[in-house]
Structure formats: structure tokens, C-alpha cells
Amino acid sequence: xxxxxxxxxxVVDPDFFLGGDVPVLFGGYTAALxxxxxxxxxxxxxxxxxxxxxxxxRVSYFRPITGGxxxxxxxxxxxxxxxxxxxxxxxxDDGKMAAKGTVVQNIIQPRNPRPGPGADPARxxxxxx
Length: 129
Prior knowledge:
The protein is mainly beta. The chain starts with a strand and ends in a 22-residue tail after the last strand. Mean pLDDT is 86; it is low at 124-129. The longest helix is centred in the first third of the chain and has 16 residues, at 27-42. Strand 4 (83-91) and strand 5 (97-107) form a beta hairpin. The chain contains one helix and five strands; from the N terminus they run E-H-E-E-E-E. It has a five-stranded antiparallel beta sheet with strand order 1-3-4-5-2, with helices on one face.
């Protein structure tokens, strides 16, 4: 895989099914898988992992996940200094798309970076007047 791309498989765990007699994966767990895949693909585009946060997570559900193995494909579709936009596709083991997510991840810039050696702490934004 290239930087900005990720492919993985997950064996569906029945413990995450809806309650009762409904053998369907809880949609919130699918969303969590999409968010996690976006976080992992983030690590493929940086030499050192930055601090980040998911600022937007949107999921469209197309088909229920009822068991088996799902394939998760994540791809960075846009990147700048402020963050990344990631597209994530979740497919069932029959090859049909179960869900598609778009994730925006913001890179967190330190508000008061620590001054380097010999720097004036008052000029770094963290010192007292």
C-alpha cells in the first residue's frame, strides 16, 4: 500500500450485534471501525504521529453486516497543514458495500509551544508580561 492508503480485515464479533434475535452489527460499532481506520491511515502519511482529533464523522449505511469478515479500505483524499479528509469503505465478505464514511481529522497545533534553548520564554507566548 502507498502512504495515505490502508486495507484491513475484521472478523465480525457477534458480541457487537444488536440485542435480541437480530444478528446485525450495531451501526455505532461500524462508525467506530471507520473512525479507527481513518486514525490508522493518518499514521501512514506522517513520519512522527501528530496530535489530532476527529472533527467530523459521517457514515452512510447501505447493507447490514450480519457476520463473516469485513474489508475496510481507507484513503486520504485531501491533506493540508490543518488536517486530512479520509474516505473509508466497509465491504461485507460477499463484496457488497455495507457502509461508507468520510472523516475529517484536525491536526492539533500546540497553543504555547515550548521555547527552544536560548529562546526568550516571554516571546514564545507562554510567559508572563
